[in-house]
Each structure stands twice: as structure tokens, then as C-alpha cells.
Design a protein that fits this description.
193 residues; mainly alpha; 68% helix; DUF2150 family protein; UCP022079
Length: 193
């Protein structure tokens, strides 16, 4: 049983990741650079997964879980100040991917998993909505897909390959991180240095 005052994520933790990004010579085509950005994203998704697990296990009340999620969202989605434009864009990509993760987690805690369609149905609906320039609807569909993933339905990333690059594909990338985090919440551990 987790002690009730467990800290799921901190400003300092996010800042440590940002410092690493700022200090590294980043090249998105380079595997190490790509891994650093993915680890940063996965780390936030793991914190979300831990809150969801604690909530599902009855260790967190609904309101506390929502407060914890809001706190992480505020830390991770706050504006980053880098002098390097390219790094700002890369961090922005990570933040964009995580937007859907936070909303899906909040929706799940608030209302439970969507009962309507499958993950794939929602992904296709989101892609159609994005193609019609209805970004809000696209996000809404993926949030519902996210609640299904949190509930245990598998997101097959092959479906992402059918989708044009854009917000939906970025959000899917975030949901993929969340899915990994839910199945193995200990993948990325920050150096205890």
C-alpha cells in the first residue's frame, strides 16, 4: 500500500529532464537524442500511470487523483524557456503528445472508460475529424480512445502508420507512451544523482 502522500511527479523532476535536453547536442535523427525525448515523455506518462493505478487500486480518492493529474499537467505543459528554437520545438512536440494523455487520464478518473467504440474506431474518427479541421473533436475522440487503453484495451500502433502526420499522430504517440507505462511503470527511472 502506497503511503498517501506519495509524490508522483515534481517540478524538479521535469526541470532535470529539461536541463538534460538543454545540455545535450540534440539531433532528432540521432537515436540517442530521440531516446532522450522519448524518455522524457515516457517519464511523465509513467507518473500518470502510477496515479491511475493507485486510483484503480483504491489508494487514491477520485478528487485526489484528479488533483495529482492536474498538478503533473501544469508542470509538464507549462511554457519552456530555451534559447534554442529547435529544442523548443522538440519539447513542444513532447508536450503536444502528452496533452491527450492528461485529458484521457482525467476523463477516465472522472467518468470511467468509454463504453461506445473501440480504440481503433476512435482513432479513425479522430483522423477524420482532423482532416475536417475539427481539432477539438479529434482530441475528444482520442481522449475516449485513451480511456479504453487505460481500461486495458490494446492500442496497436500499426493504426498510426495509416494516419498522416499531425496532431492526431502526435497524440497517438503519447497514448502509446501511456500504454507502455501502464504495462510496465518502471521503465524510466531518473538517475538518483
Amino acid at each position: 500500500m502506497a503511503e498517501p502522500e506519495e509524490t508522483f511527479y515534481t517540478e524538479e523532476r521535469w526541470q532535470n529532464w529539461l536541463t538534460r535536453v538543454e545540455d545535450e547536442d540534440l539531433d532528432p535523427e540521432n537515436e540517442d537524442s530521440a531516446r532522450l525525448l522519448l524518455n522524457l515523455q515516457d517519464d511523465a506518462a509513467i507518473a500518470v500511470a502510477k496515479i491511475l493505478t493507485a486510483y484503480d487500486d483504491g489508494d487514491l480518492e477520485q478528487e485526489t487523483a484528479l488533483d495529482e493529474l492536474a498538478e503533473i499537467r501544469e508542470i509538464v505543459l507549462s511554457e519552456v524557456e530555451f534559447d534554442d528554437e529547435e529544442k523548443l520545438m522538440l519539447i513542444d512536440g513532447v508536450q503536444t503528445s502528452l496533452v491527450c494523455v492528461f485529458y484521457a487520464a482525467e476523463e477516465y478518473v472522472h467518468a470511467g472508460p468509454s463504453e461506445e467504440g473501440s480504440v481503433v474506431d476512435y482513432v479513425h474518427a479522430a483522423a477524420d475529424a482532423e482532416a475536417a479541421d475539427d481539432v477539438d473533436a479529434a482530441l475528444g475522440y482520442l481522449v475516449q480512445a485513451g480511456t479504453r487503453i487505460i481500461d486495458g484495451e490494446e492500442l496497436d500502433m500499426a493504426v498510426a502508420e495509416e494516419i498522416e502526420y499531425g496532431l492526431v499522430s502526435e497524440w497517438l504517440n503519447g497514448l502509446d507512451s501511456l500504454q507502455s507505462a501502464l504495462s510496465d511503470p518502471e521503465v524510466v527511472e531518473e538517475d538518483d544523482g
